[in-house]
Design a protein that fits this description.
Elements (H helix, E strand, L loop, with lengths): L1 H5 L10 H13 L5 E8 L4 E7 L5 H20 L18 H17 L13 H10 L1
Antiparallel strand pairs: 1-2
Length: about 140
Amino acid sequence: MDKYEDAGYGQCFLKDDRVASVVQNNLLYFDNIRYLLHSWCIMPNHVHILMEVKEGWTLSEIMHGWRSYTAKTANKILERTGDFWQKEYLDRFIRNEEHYKNVVEYINNNPVKAGLVTDAKMWKWCSFYMVNVTNAK
C-alpha cells in the first residue's frame, strides 16, 4: 500500500494547498486538547499522524471529528461531493523508544521517499518543516 500511496495513485486532493492547509490547521487546532501531536505529514493522497490520545478521548472519536470536518471543508473548497477519505484508517501502537524513533523518521522522510522534495525540511505540510521554520527564526 505504501508503494502505491507514495507513487501518487488515487485521488490526490491533498496536493491542493488550500485543502492541505485545512487538514494541517485542523490537526493543530486540537493539539494539547484531544491529543498530543508528535509528528505528522500531509501527502498528496494520504496523511501520517503520530499522536498520543489524551484522557477522556478515544482514537475513534478523534478520527471521526477530524475526518468529518476536513472532508466537508475540502469538498466545499474543491466544489465536489462524495467520500473524501477512505472508509478505514490504519492505526498502530508504538511498542518502544526505537519503534517511536523509526516511525518519526518514516513520517518525516515520506515526502523525500515519494520524490516530492529532495530534503524533508522543504515539505511544508509536515511537523518537521514547522520545527525547522520555527527554529530558523
